[in-house]
Design a protein that fits this description.
EC 4.2.1.96 (chains A, B); 4-alpha-hydroxytetrahydrobiopterin dehydratase activity (chains A, B); Gyrase A, domain 2; alpha+beta; four-stranded antiparallel sheet; 3 helices; homodimer; Putative pterin-4-alpha-carbinolamine dehydratase (chains A, B); lyase (chains A, B)
Chain lengths: 100, 100
């Protein structure tokens, strides 16, 4: 099982994500971001790219799409909070959104 | 603008969808269904198929995906409720789910 991020390692991992619009949920067990694209085609192109990355890692987002917005929540459920898996997928999502 | 479904036409249009697991929201302005697949690949295959159909119709779902589940809400916002666009997309989603 992937270990929960704690202390300084957690702060260090989260800082660049927070700078790019990710926020922690109220329990500190997940990170969230709302991506906004120009239209549905771009939003779904982003989702398709992320879907492949997520399946490859066997680590999947909780996400909601409404037309050109995609609201994402990342958490590692079997660890009960944030792990390096969430940090890495969040970074990949930022890259994927920039690419669209 | 597509007209709101009312009265008998509305009942007639909804009946087959209700029989296939769709429910009305509490205000009667939307229909909802939770699709459950075997895994993420099948859930996202369904979403991809539906994305193409939705974009073609320029009528898009509000949907949330968590691993193998896809929760869908359909409504025609500029009409303030259910129209034939929602009925048709719901039918297409049932077909797409059966195909996966």
């Amino acid at each position: 099982m992937t270990e929960l991020l704690k202390g300084t390692a957690r702060d260090k991992a989260l800082a660049p994500l927070v700078a790019q619009g990710w926020t922690e949920n109220s329990h500190g067990t997940a990170i969230e971001k709302r991506f906004v694209f120009r239209n549905f085609v771009e939003a779904f192109a982003f989702m398709t790219r992320v879907a492949l990355l997520a399946e490859k890692r066997d680590h999947h987002p909780d996400w909601r799409n409404v037309y050109r917005t995609v609201e994402v929540t990342l958490s590692t459920h079997d660890a009960g909070g944030l792990t390096v898996k969430d940090i890495e997928l969040a970074q990949k999502m930022n890259e994927a959104a920039a690419y669209v």
